[in-house]
Design a protein that fits this description.
Length: about 100
């Protein structure tokens, strides 16, 4: 993965990541293909499984291309939802966020 965090683009997620937001999230992520991305999920209040799928698929794709896609800031609701879904992918959620 790229170690140049200073060049990473920031993708700020909306408060609600439900089924209606999944398509838009997919478009936003794809717009940054080939770039390191830092995800700001600090204002997320609700997360649906479809948006989690988009983020996990993107993280896997970014890893395959040796790019970085990482959640740098996350709300409690975002973290708790991922934990309820059994998501503990450190490539998406660094250890310091999961504390």
């Amino acid at each position: 993965m790229s170690s140049n965090d200073a060049a990473a683009k920031i993708l700020k997620l909306p408060e609600v990541l439900d089924l209606n937001a999944a398509s838009r999230l997919h478009e936003q992520v794809l717009a940054h293909k080939g770039e390191d991305i830092d995800i700001d999920a600090s204002e997320v209040t609700r997360v649906g499984a479809q948006c989690v799928q988009v983020l996990l698929a993107a993280a896997k794709s970014w890893r395959a291309e040796e790019q970085s896609l990482t959640v740098r800031q996350a709300s409690d609701a975002f973290i708790k939802t991922l934990q309820l879904l059994g998501i503990s992918d450190e490539a998406l959620l660094p250890k310091e966020i999961l504390k």
